[in-house]
Amino acid sequence: MEIVIATHNNDKLKELLKAFDSHFSGIDLLTLNDFPEVGEIIEDGKTLEQNALIKVREVFNLTGIPCLSDDTGLEVDALNGAPGVYTARYAGEGCSYYDNVCKLLEDMQTIPAPNRTAKFKTVIAYKDETTEMTAEGIAEGSISRASSGDFGFGYDPIFFIPEARKTFAEMNIDEKEIYSHRGKAIRAIMNTLIPHLEQVRQMTKKEKA
Ligand code: IMP
Fold first, then answer.
1. In whole angstroms, what is the distance from residue 91 CA to residue 166 CA?
2. For 2, 37, 93, 95, which has the most beta carbons within 10 A of its beta carbon?
3. pLDDT tens per residue, range 106-124
């Protein structure tokens, strides 16, 4: 069996491949690099769940292969939940991770420590011929006053996890998976996805017999 990871973001892909690989056995994980015909996907949903579903639906329609996708947003309490669905382009169209980090630090310059709380949310979606499912993972933390750490990507250098006393960028990929929104969403979807894939396997076996 094959599953395509439907993302063009290589940083997310690295974390998704590593985590899914440890949960699946006998499944070949493909990426969009295997399907150059799949171009940029317009994510115009109003929620993370809608955007995650847009990605799996489009990639499933184009490839006919079961798909998994991830949509992630950062919600800062002092900014009334911004940047939310605009997390990727907080500093404007075509901005870099660094631009986003600088803008967020600047926008929060006057916010005192107790009010710097924030959440990272990920929705993972799965689609095949018969089934669609989604699951959410949330990481609670706070926005630090300055960047720290060299691992990860995006807002990782300023997203501080109190429990670990580290930013995500101070964690290697294995440690980040324990605390992160993405790691939690992946573990959550596995509760329904693994039994579903087992059912699909059994049905395919019967059809072949
Ligand atoms: P997307 O819309 O799911 O591709 O992600 C939106 C943006 O969120 C990305 O462009 C990154 O800036 C940021 N992002 C997503 N996941 C992470 C993460 O695990 N750590 C830090 N930033 C992230």
1. 25
2. 95
3. 999 999 999 999 999 999 9
